[in-house]
Please model this.
Amino acid sequence: DTAVSQTPKYLVTQMGNDKSIKCEQNLGHDTMYWYKQDSKKFLKIMFSYNNKELIINETVPNRFSPKSPDKAHLNLHINSLELGDSAVYFCASSQDLALSTDTQYFGPGTRLTVL
Amino acid sequence: KQEVTQIPAALSVPEGENLVLNCSFTDSAIYNLQWFRQDPGKGLTSLLLIQSSQREQTSGRLNASLDKSSGRSTLYIAASQPGDSATYLCAVKTSGSRLTFGEGTQLTVNP
Model:
């Protein structure tokens, strides 16, 4: 009965490859997010989708492309992986981003290592 | 641009001690402030959320305060336990519904 799940948990790949990370939430939330946590543990927003519509798109290389097939899923596809993409990627969801009480629920993270 | 700073970066205390973690932010136009806990290799768990109109929130041994005008928040942990060892992250929600995180305080409570 995991609220926000991500697959895979670990991903090790070579430079130049294309990979995807999947995220699913069973909380019935309208909004989903992708965050990147670098080696210094600094957590930064990458994308946010509300009802399958992109609402936040930070300064992220266009090699990163989020895809939301439905409200419960937000996948992250990364093309031409680079060494600097190595990080932990977290998916999150929240009920209604417009609410001042809106709390985000995080997945367990996907540790991506690019060799 | 909102910036969030947390002090100290790391803290080690003996079990039973009361402690305070600090968070400061540069733009006082926030919707809310949240404190999260992150255990090694795990995701984040929300601990407390303070709306911009509130001054504090309490949950068990945790108490978080917010002074929006000075751009500061504190997380008070009473009677610390080894199980409280984790990284504590402060995050503020600003316009565009973005959460801006601090770099966290790594807490170790020694038995």
In short: Chain B touches chain A at residues 31-32, 34, 36, 41-46, 49, 51-53, 87, 89, 93, 96-101, 103-104 (CB under 8 Å). Chain B has a mean pLDDT of 94. Residues 91 and 101 of chain B are 4 Å apart (CA to CA).
